[in-house]
Design goal:
The chain is α/β, with parallel strands linked by helices and 276 residues long. The chain has helices spanning 44-50, 77-90, 103-114, 136-153, 155-163, 182-196, 203-208, 225-237, 250-253, 255-275; strands spanning 8-14, 17-25, 29-33, 55-59, 96-101, 119-125, 213-218, 241-244. The protein has an eight-stranded mixed beta sheet, sandwiched between helices. Helix 2 (77-90) crosses helix 3 and helix 4 packs antiparallel against helix 5.
Length: 276
């Protein structure tokens, strides 16, 4: 699949961080929010595929890749939501479709909670809200174990154990993905993972606000905790849930197969809103 990239770079200053953004296309705005890997270039393939009908923008999240800060701080999901708002406003839009994957899905839901009038539609792809799961107690204790492992054994052993549950990446024939800078992984374990361990946006308020939300889980992820969490999100929110091609980054590795499901989700959300 040809990327067809024609990206423009923009730097958006927000709360002490220069957020490095890339955009292309024309039409309604879609904002793509990275997860724990932090970098926006994972969305370049799907942005290229959509730019004939949408304005597509992504960014490196604060303290990740190009969006560096002088003094790193612990993750604040509400601040991440304000960063999304700043990017949308800098693009000259008052609202946006927002697609976030993994912890980017959490930040997208937080954005919808904090700025409902700016959320056109929100699509959360495998947001790992583990506290919603029936086995949440076991998962919280495993996450605490990973934190202890990181403090005592270091990043390599911790990342290896964590990655063992990221199913689908090693499936036969699956193309490789863009790798984040090493400092992104360090920032994730130092400053983000401890906060994400139990953080869940106010899902009931999202439902009460009747925010237009759809959720997705990748077929290659099988029974991974972040995929199973999607089923619970759909039940709590009463929103559409799609089983889509690919693994945890299927939108990047298998863009051509993923794209029709993305567009079908947007159509579904539009129809639900028109019928409401």
């Amino acid at each position: 699949m040809s990327l067809g990239l024609d990206l423009t770079r923009r730097i958006v200053h927000n709360e002490g961080c220069d957020l490095h953004c890339w955009f292309q296309g024309n039409g309604p705005l879609i904002t793509f929010v990275p997860g724990g890997n932090g970098h926006g270039r994972q969305f370049y393939p799907i942005m290229a595929a959509l730019s004939d009908r949408f304005t597509c923008v992504t960014f490196d999240r604060r303290q990740m890749s190009a969006s560096k800060v002088n003094t790193p701080k612990k993750l604040s999901p509400p601040q991440q939501a304000r960063d999304i708002r700043a990017v949308i406003q800098a693009m000259g839009f008052t609202k946006s479709i927002v697609f976030g994957s993994s912890s980017g899905g959490i930040f997208s839901l937080q954005f919808a909670h904090d700025f409902p009038n700016m959320a056109d539609h929100v699509i959360a792809h495998e947001a790992p809200l583990i506290t919603l799961l029936p086995d949440a107690s076991e998962l919280v204790e495993w996450f605490l174990h990973l934190m202890e492992l990181y403090e005592t054994q270091g990043i390599e052993q911790t990342a290896a154990e964590f990655s063992s549950r990221l199913l689908g990446y090693d499936d036969e024939g699956v193309p490789p993905i863009a790798r984040p800078e090493p400092e992104n992984r360090q920032n994730f374990w130092d400053n983000e993972f401890p906060i994400l361990l139990g953080y869940t946006p106010n899902m009931w308020r999202l439902r009460e606000n009747k925010t237009s939300i759809g959720v997705m889980r990748g077929v290659r992820c099988r029974d991974a905790f972040f995929a199973r969490s999607v089923d619970e999100q759909a039940q709590v929110l009463g929103c559409p849930m799609f089983l889509v091609p690919g693994h945890h980054q299927g939108f990047e590795a298998e863009t051509e197969q993923f794209l029709p499901h993305f567009l079908r989700m947007l159509d579904t959300l539009e129809k639900r809103r028109s019928e409401a």
